[in-house]
Task: structure prediction
Amino acid sequence: MNYKDCIIRFALILFFSFILGLERKSHQHTVGIRTLVLMGISSCLLSMLSIEMAAAPIVKGDPTRIAAGVITGIGFLGGGAILKQGLNIRGLTTAAIIFTISAIGMACGAGFFIPAAITFIITMVILFTMDKLEKKMFPASKTKTVMLTLNWDSLHPEEIQDIMKFHGMIIHDMTIKYHTEENTAELSYTVKTPDKMNNVQLVEDFKEKISGLKDFKICDK
Result:
């Protein structure tokens, strides 16, 4: 392997990882340009090292174990990108991108430029089209908790559920707690909500349409 080959392989993975890092950073994710570029370049280098060691007659054993070690290490980094925020899990797509850029880096290091380019193109198409398709097919994607406190005498769960459904919520379950001294009911709903929901209008609807409402809260946990 000459210097020209090395430059081509590094330049290609630098471009691929930079674009994917830019896409992640534009969505305000922790893993961004520098992280993915470093992962791609290091995977590319280790892949080239694995090939050169396999070609060297003085090396004993199986040098391709380097590639297996890369996959294990990238899996560890990908797991660190997955975060639990309240009832929601974030970072799964970022973890998948970390794994993908590592695979693309190894492909560039091995000289498989066309498969690497095809994988990159497919990844970009998925990132820019599947997200919109998922939101269109499944607009209610975020899990939240809706809590209401109201007078027991004015308790009408059907009206509450109608308002939530009108705002695009999908109700998963409901729990109720009765306070004997205040004669009030505390309702807690676990719901799926759209990404863009007018919370102010939701509060206004509850205020106008639900009599005896004392308290209202919507949160991620």
In short: Helices lie at 3-26, 33-55, 65-80, 92-110, 113-137, 157-166, 199-209.
